[in-house]
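pls design
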């Protein structure tokens, strides 16, 4: 690649055009407004020995009545490209040494004045773009699990103290999160959506994973049993941990969202719950008639 001192033009070692006698399993679109052999552009890459580029071209069929070719975009003359034009054209980042091109089609029997453009513009590469996507797919699970995903907030009612044998309400507050990372030189957008939850109550008992995230209760209802509550059988201090399971999707260079195979597990910092014992006593005295009776405010006991 050579850039002239003026910075206005750039030179690529790319042939002016490539005529490909390939076919399409379906007829060409009459309005030429879309790529009619593969709209997505992934899965049809093959290496063309003549141009030494990987091209996104129609599938081969012997009896096709169509011919295809591509020409470099922004070509001025003699392999000289306009920099400003290239800057505004399609970005080719799915593989190594991407070049923007425009595809054309015509009937085999038609003359050279019959070439029609195919939209949108496409790219050619010096290495197989699907290989790059495959390598990203092989690494995406590990990268997903390394992201700083926030497991969410662990809610506890009542806290920091609760009573032995009473139902303590636990719940989760978590949200969908997005991250932009670079993998193998490609821009990858990852979305993490919370789908399941697990509570480790600190006394050897856990709940989940479950889709129930629970929710807060008004104070007058504290102590009620909920789908995510827990009653401690002993007193003491217990460290409670919330683990949230996230399902992920990713897209490469603005492409379609693809599923990440397995869920990622992310845990919140532990929170301490102090479990106290309650004491119940029965008294026979009426404090109104005997203010100094046992259990009354005026008593010494």
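designed seq:
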């Amino acid at each position: 690649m050579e850039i002239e001192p003026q910075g206005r033009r750039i030179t690529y070692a790319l042939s002016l055009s490539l005529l490909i006698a390939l076919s399409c399993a379906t007829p060409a679109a009459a309005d030429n407004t879309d790529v009619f052999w593969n709209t997505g552009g992934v899965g049809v890459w093959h290496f063309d020995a003549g141009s030494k580029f990987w091209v996104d071209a129609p599938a081969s069929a012997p009896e096709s009545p169509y011919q295809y070719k591509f020409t470099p975009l922004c070509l001025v003359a003699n392999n000289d490209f306009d920099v400003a034009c290239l800057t505004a054209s399609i970005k080719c980042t799915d593989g190594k040494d991407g070049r923007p091109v425009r595809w054309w089609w015509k009937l085999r029997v038609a003359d050279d004045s019959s070439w029609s453009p195919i939209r949108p513009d496409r790219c050619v590469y010096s290495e197989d773009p699907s290989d790059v996507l495959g390598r990203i797919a092989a690494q995406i699970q590990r990268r997903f699990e390394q992201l700083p995903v926030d497991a969410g907030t662990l809610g506890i009612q009542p806290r920091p103290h609760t009573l032995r044998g009473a139902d303590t309400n636990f719940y989760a507050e978590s949200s969908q999160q997005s991250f932009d990372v670079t993998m193998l030189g490609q821009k990858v957008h990852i979305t993490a959506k919370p789908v399941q939850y697990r509570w480790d109550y600190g006394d050897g008992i856990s709940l989940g994973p479950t889709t129930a995230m629970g929710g807060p209760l008004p104070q007058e209802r504290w102590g009620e049993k909920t789908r995510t509550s827990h009653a401690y059988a002993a007193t003491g201090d217990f460290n409670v941990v919330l683990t949230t399971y996230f399902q992920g999707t990713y897209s490469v260079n603005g492409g379609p969202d693809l599923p990440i195979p397995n869920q990622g597990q992310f845990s919140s910092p532990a929170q301490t719950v102090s479990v106290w014992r309650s004491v119940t006593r029965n008294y026979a005295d009426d404090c109104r008639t005997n203010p100094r009776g046992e259990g009354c405010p005026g008593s010494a006991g």
